[in-house]
Design a protein that fits this description.
Length: about 130
């Protein structure tokens, strides 16, 4: 499970965020980006000591200040279920592995696209036809 897929699924759900400085933010996740910057609504901020509280309509938290996130179990279950269904679809799709060069060429088993020119002449300046 990737952290960003978890956050994308958690949009609209309540979550707790603790920052590196010890402050905690409880609110509903509005959005997040690839740097894990987070936008919350209906936020209650708690000081490091836990003795002061602030209520804010919304706030923006920079991703590199986050120590940890706590999301509801239902969100984690939902992400695991989505990953499981994706894996099932991938197994049923019948795609092969790698780029797949196609069938083997008739010229001694060598693949196409080797060297310059059109003909079978090798070496420098041979031209080959």
């Amino acid at each position: 499970m990737l952290p960003l897929s978890l956050l994308k699924t958690a949009q609209g759900h309540p979550m707790l965020i603790e920052l590196k400085n010890g402050e905690t933010y409880n609110g509903h996740l509005v959005s997040c980006d690839t740097w894990m910057n987070i936008h919350l609504r209906e936020v209650i901020c708690t000081s490091k000591d836990g003795d002061r509280f602030w209520r804010m309509a919304e706030c923006y938290i920079r991703g590199n200040t986050i120590k940890y996130l706590r999301v509801p179990d239902e969100v984690i279950d939902k992400v695991q279920q989505e990953n499981f269904t994706r894996k099932d679809r991938r197994e049923l799709s019948g795609r092969g592995r790698g780029r797949g060069r196609g069938s083997v060429d008739t010229e001694g088993g060598r693949g196409r696209g080797r060297g310059r020119g059109r003909g079978g002449g090798g070496g420098r300046g041979g031209g080959g036809g």
